[in-house]
Specification:
Largest sheet: 10 strands, mixed
Number of strands: 27
Shape: globular
Helix content: 10-25%
Distance between the termini: 40 Å
Radius of gyration: 26 Å
Amino acid sequence: LSFPGVHAGPCPVSAGMALAPPDACCVEAGQDCEDSTLAPTSITDLKSLSTGGLDCDTEISMAAPKPAQLAPPVSAWRRLLYLVVVGTLVAGTVVATLRVLSLWPGPRWFASGLQECVPTARSGCLWVTTVEDGQAGQLLMLQDPVVLDPGVDCEGEACAGLASQPIEQVFARRTSTDDPSTTPLSIHVDLDKELQTIVGYGATMTQSAAFLLSALKKDSPDLYNDLMLRLFGTGNQSAGVSFVRFPIGSCDFSLREATWDDSTFDYSLENFAPDADSEVMLEILGDAKKIQPDLALMATPWSPPAWLKVLGKIDGVNEENRLINTTAAYRVYAEYLVKAAEVVEQRGLALAYMSLQNEPYTPPGGGAIYPGMRMEPAEQVQLGALVRERLPRSIKLLAWDHNWDHTEFPLEVLKDSAAGTFAGVAWHCYSGTMEQAYQTLQHAYPNLETHMTECVALFDNGACDVSTGMRDFAVNHQWDMTHIFAGAAAHGAQSGIKYALVADETCGPVLPELHYWKRAIRPLVTIPSNARSMDDLIFQQDFWTMAHSGAQFIEPGAKRVTVTTSSGFPGFVEAFHNKRAKTVTLIALNWHKAEEVNAMVWHKGQPVSLVVPPGGTVIFQVLS
């Protein structure tokens, strides 16, 4: 984590209308965004912008009835009852007013669907997310089943033979009409032309996230189980997290600094063992694995043990505090990482990936003191060779694990490493351009994997206010879908991971020394310290955006397949073949904020019209 910005769009966005219960809402005035037909292409384009004002994404009570309806004379007990009733009504009105003014948090009221739907031979499933004045409207709202009737032939020369063609051959076709304004855009999906394998999408499980979940498990086991199902399950209201990254030793979002061997000069690693907070983290990951058996895991160290570093400190401190440049230090650290993988495997957690250093080009400083280490390409080459020699082949090594703007680092590492040492490259989103970075690496190494392994989100203005987590949904959703989740697959990405899985109402816990923007990170879910029911939890916008690429839509191991669209589609369309489920999932996002997109999808000769709302997303799933 090294970029103190917010994915909030390239231009001012109207503060808009947030959904309240049907009887009440408000519209906040603000500046309209410039014509947003193109998605932002670089994180450096994004600025945190907020017009302030009212916040309506909260519960609003009904107005209190007039107390004049209570007729005198009354007895003392009736007078007391009268005062209680009136007091309660007045208090309710005050609470409602405070919630409108965002002074009293309260639960979020968004029209969320995310219901289960199983496609059949005669019907497909359709989910729609809408945007209203830049804010969230419906969130993955399940629509009526899309009727597919293979027995109905289409008419006209343009449709000749379509009735007998399976979906693998014809998924979409432009309709014949002379009016371009009513001509749906064509979308053709070819299941015979497979592209990359999708590993999964998700977030990072830090020690502080595990601490919060473990506390919930102890105090409210039913709520814990429900939340874990919402995060890792694929049923109703679930995000379908299928890929999780976690730290080897502490990170910035930890309760205390520790590694998995803090015994000074333990070159034999006799005292190697996960610290207590990491043991809790592994326990929670085990629970997640029971819900999502195909959960992919990636392990990353933020720092070696302090006794293996030049300055003897776990914190990054400066560029000098790197791994001691001796053969013995490199061999011991390589064995340390291999032992970490073994421990994870012994806990029943199959490790899929490992990187050698989180953000190797970040010189920690600027007031933030947390575990870190500078690592140059030659150092990663040397360490990578030693780790690969000992690490099981089932665990893949990823090079780099930092921003898009330094493609020269992974290029040098891959060039100087023996073939097979690294399976691919891990990226972060805080500077540079996704398209350029991915294209550069894939041009040089077309057979290596591409993974987005960290991208943070912040609350408005870099201040921790958990009640603002749905603001500017439209531009954030568009950016994340395009650069982290399903849309990034168009550029070869095989995964997408946000940073914080869960956090509390203080946007922590974090290491005590940390301050400024790291204390405003927006998680997928906020768990207030007094949470005792699902209504107390706050599902932030990142939960909903990530859910658009969850395992219920893109199963781990799904194949991205070729999609061809007619020119002029203002957004992206991607398709994924879930071979185990025998389904095809089509995901389309409309970048245009004012115009809907009409598309005609053909399924075995039967036309199906899809409308992608302005700034919205549709997910269409059928049997393959």
